[in-house]
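User: Can you recover a sequence for this backbone? Please restate the input before giving your answer.

Assistant: Of course. Working from this structure:
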């Protein structure tokens, strides 16, 4: 971790325990964020196949690390978009399957009555 931390200039994104109050204060100052501020906007969604060119992170140093983070977030956003489309397709398929099951249930209910009537007639014929 110390090698990675040194490589990234003392600011390793994966070792949050190395971040102190001064780091948080510097980050907030660079982001122009208050400690208790509420997030008021979120990134917009993208259509299937559309990939954001940039803009997932607010640029502070405008270096290669931020470029890589932005590219990685674009890949993650694309995968999440694919998962969303798959979930919507599954929901549509489940709705169709449920409609088919409802029709089968109605027919089964009707057939139970018919079988009971046929059984009663058969028992009546056997008793005569």
């Amino acid at each position: 971790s110390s090698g990675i931390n040194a490589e990234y200039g003392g600011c390793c994104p994966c070792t949050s325990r190395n971040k102190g109050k001064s780091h948080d204060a510097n980050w907030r100052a660079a982001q122009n964020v208050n400690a208790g501020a509420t997030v008021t906007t979120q990134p917009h969604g993208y259509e299937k196949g559309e990939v954001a060119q940039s803009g997932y992170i607010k640029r502070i140093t405008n270096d290669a690390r931020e470029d890589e983070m932005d590219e990685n977030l674009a890949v993650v956003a694309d995968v999440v978009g694919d998962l969303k489309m798959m979930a919507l397709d599954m929901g549509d398929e489940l709705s169709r399957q449920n409609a088919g099951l409802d029709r089968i249930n109605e027919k089964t209910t009707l057939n139970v009555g018919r079988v009971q009537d046929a059984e009663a007639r058969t028992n009546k014929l056997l008793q005569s």
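That completes the design. Residues 62 and 68 are 11 Å apart (CA to CA).
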